[in-house]
Amino acid sequence: MVGRRHFVPHVPGTRFLDASSAGEFATDAELALAANWDRTASSVKHMTFIALKTMEA
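RE: above sequence
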């Protein structure tokens, strides 16, 4: 039996909209869509970082 989990960094000041995921867990494609995320911080200046760049696909 193999169990795998992928951990995604969560930016403070944002939240993922659970209703947008089709299954029990969100897929990589669903996590990549900006429409599935909601900003909860009152301003972008209150967020800890603006962009996360990776070399992985």
